[in-house]
Specification:
Blueprint (H helix, E strand, L loop, with lengths): L2 H36 L6 H18 L3 H19 L1
């Protein structure tokens, strides 16, 4: 496979990633509505810790740097919290 083909595969993968991020943010918005209706605070440290743990564990299984995976989890949760507020 040549460089152009590999870059095309990266672009296609990036589209899939952004589609999934969009889906995650839509779900976060729905979670925000439920939290608002029930008076539940946006921040839940236990849930955030569980998400980070899930990302780190999956990263290790996939041979990805767990610290990088944690950075991604924190970024996604930051976006999600902004949507929920």
């Amino acid at each position: 496979m040549n460089l152009a083909e590999l870059r095309k595969k990266i672009a296609f993968t990036d589209e899939k990633i952004l589609t999934l991020v969009s889906e995650r943010l839509h779900i976060a918005s729905e979670i925000g509505k439920v939290k608002k209706e029930s008076g539940t605070p946006v921040l839940n440290k236990e849930v955030e810790d569980a998400v980070i743990s899930r990302y780190r564990n999956f990263a290790e299984e996939e041979g990805i740097d767990p610290d990088a995976a944690e950075e991604l989890a924190v970024l996604l949760m930051t976006w999600s919290k902004k949507i929920q507020e």
